[in-house]
Amino acid sequence: MAALSKHSIQCVELPLIEHAPGPDRDRLPGLLQAGAFDWVACTSPESAAVFLEGWRAAGSPKVRVAVVGGGTGEVLAAAGVTPEFTATKALGKALGKVMGAELPHIPGGSDVVLYPASVKASTDLQDSLAAAGFSVQRINTYNTIGISSVDQALLQQALAADVVTFGSPSAVKAWVALVGLQAASQKMNVCIGSTSARACGNVGLPADTIIFPDAPGIEEWARCVLQGLQKIGKLPAVVA
Question: pLDDT digit string (tens) for 119-138?
């Protein structure tokens, strides 16, 4: 929100999904205390938030964290945890390939990566890490579900917006289910990454309404929002 507000863009935050504990949530503090791993992999802002909750419950032990995406790293840094590895891209399925190809092996280490994941997460990340010689301990610490009710006043404000932004495929599906494909197709749809962009295409949103950044980070996402507004004539074009 702050990244857009500084460009004098009015924002409406409409929660459509919520995160529920996954079946392995309670195991995380004990695993962090045991420390039988070289890396903890966090692949989204929510996974970072779940990690931080378990990390604090474990007594804030010293751990080595690897992240995908600038937004994920920012969540950790704000809590005083500095990631020691950041994948160079956060582009859907490429994210796992990038981390698997780039994550350094620790000399004398265990080559174990602890992966607190969403129940809905694919196996792309763990497969690529395994191919690179790591042993991955995946624990399903959270799940993404649709909210049970929507504030109608906020919904009306959202329907009047020119650009709709998405941080996950679940949010894409929840939005289209709520407002219908016809209404959703009349907006510019800006996604945090290619996974959400593919979800937009999969639900039937027109390709020329879908924008996502080539590089990870909140600033790149904000740049895409500006691009969407420029595309529909709501902002003057910027000449670089």
Answer: 988 888 999 999 999 999 99
